[in-house]
Amino acid sequence: MKLTFLGTGTSQGVPVIACNCEICSSSNPKDKRLRSSVWIESDDTSIVIDSGPDFRQQMLRENVDKLDALVFTHEHKDHVAGMDDVRAFNFKQKKDMEVFAHPRVQEALKREFAYVFADIRYPGVPRVNLNEISKDQNFTIGDITLNPIEVMHYKLPVLGFRIKNLVYITDANYISDSEFQKIEGCDVLILNALRKEEHISHFTLSEAIEIGKKSGAKQVYFTHISHLLGLHDGISKELPSNMHLSYDGLTIEF
């Protein structure tokens, strides 16, 4: 299987509007971060986890011409705002888009995209089929099986996912011991690392490093990165040899 980082930034992206800091002014492409999302491909199946405000741009950049499903981690705008653009796949694939989300997230989607779920729908609106998921049950899309992992984003439960030997977690600042057992033994761990300073709802870089060590993962990639963390090249030099700052467009096989 293959995973592509569609976006590795936090809710504001990098550069941040109206910011002229060193990171936002950087000419290094690895310091340009769209909102966090990943594209996962197997031989037969193509899925995206989270469709933020940059979903259209990400699909065009990576030349994604087939998408079997959207999977949502939680309902915050930087993770769901781009769902409208599945229309293009509706037209091309001539079928509804399968959407996998917790019931709470489904209710948020119905509020945010009321026109999609209206009894009388305007011609051309996105067509989606909602599928319920929870932390207690694995689910399969095509030939890709996902094992949900519940983490906490301050007081909001968020789902991460284990796929074979890879774990993807975004927007977290706490993982219970019982849920951490789902992570142990993975080869690849992808985890949010917002900045160096403490934050109410996200892991700091040092916290993410410690979790990476605790997991025993062979390779650790950090995502959901803000402009407050630092320049990609500088922070990369500070990390243990098996840990990496992800960047938009990075592809890994697992």
Explain what this protein looks like in three dimensions.
There is one protein chain. The chain has 254 residues and is of the alpha/beta class. The protein is 19% helix and 27% strand. It is built from 7 helices and 14 strands. It has helices at 55-61, 77-80, 87-93, 103-112, 177-180, 205-215, 232-236, and strands at residues 2-7, 37-41, 46-49, 69-71, 97-101, 128-132, 139-141, 144-153, 156-163, 166-168, 188-192, 219-223, 243-245, 251-253. The strands form 2 sheets. Strands 6-5-4-3-2-1-14 form a 7-stranded mixed beta sheet. Helix 6 links the parallel strand 11 (188-192) and strand 12 (219-223). The model has no long low-confidence stretch (mean pLDDT 98).
What attributes characterize this protein structure?
seven-stranded mixed sheet, 254 residues, single chain, 27% strand
Write the SSE topology.
Elements lengths: L1 E6 L29 E5 L4 E4 L5 H7 L7 E3 L5 H4 L6 H7 L3 E5 L1 H10 L15 E5 L6 E3 L2 E10 L2 E8 L2 E3 L8 H4 L7 E5 L12 H11 L3 E5 L8 H5 L6 E3 L5 E3 L1
Parallel strand pairs: 3-4, 4-5, 5-6, 10-11, 11-12, 12-13
Antiparallel strand pairs: 1-2, 1-14, 2-3, 7-8, 8-9, 9-10
